[in-house]
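User: Okay, second chain of the day. Same drill as before: sequence in, structure tokens out.
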Amino acid sequence: MKFTSTALLLLGALLVGRATQAADAVNGIVALVGDSVITYEQVERLIARAIELERAKYPNQPDNLRRAVAEARKAGVETLINRRLILEDFKELKVSLPETLIEKNVEEEIKQRYGERTVLAKSLQQEGVTFESFRKEIREQFIEAVMRNRNVPRDILVSPGRIEKFYRENIEKYQIPDQVKLRMIVIDKTRTPADATRLGREILSKLDDGADFAEMAAVYSDGSQAREGGSWGWVDRKVLREDLADVAFQLPAGKRSDLIEKAEGVYIMLVEENRIAHVRPIDEVREEIERTLVVTERMRLQKAWIDKLRKKQFIRTIVN
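Assistant: Same drill. Structure tokens below.
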């Protein structure tokens, strides 16, 4: 771990600054990596979109939102620490990037995120960020991507033997329980409490006369799958309520139920196909396993690389 005089001076100042909350707010520093600092503002900019999504997810759950924001902030700090480590590693290579390449990436980023420069300018002004800071961020992201590709190859070969070994050791992941391909008409009694049963019997009569089940579901069903003709696709028992599952899994392929009356509504089921429990054959899941193993190996290589970089630099997190 490398301790520079600048880093030690910064750390000393920050440790003194932690004596009061006010001092923390003034320096705005959340972490040190070598001679570089990571600021609260950088973290907040990085996680801004994630925070918006969390607020939409937990509009009336302040405790859950607080935990989600804290986790996002923690992840943001780690992301920026790793980026700074990677940038330091890039510096040690003593290579330069053509400015034309950086400009190309800046233009592509503007086009993808903002459409045009005028929109970018307004957005940066609202955020209090200069164009040079924006350009620097794009440059650093590009360098990070280049270094990741250099140290964590994307083309990782997985041997057939390793795939077969993973399949054998994780066979339970590929076990498929009994399933039925199901369509269902649901008539909600809260909408038509007096007429639900009568309507259900009218639908049964039309089905007996040859009406198409999917068309009847699209017209009459209150279920969320009505637009798809009442189709639930392939389901196993745990997808359905136990009492409804008992009916569905007793029906032969191509047969429908009688009217199923419950307190909340009435149901009519059609089982289009049955599929007995089985294990997916390895040829069916080979590509899926290969993708899993490639991702796992890339994560392992990335962790080993970042761990190596961490040993070379002084790192201090100021705010957890």
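The beta strands are 29-33, 36-39, 175-176, 179-188, 231-236, 255-256, 260-261, 265-275, 278-279, 315-317.

User: Thanks, on to the next one.
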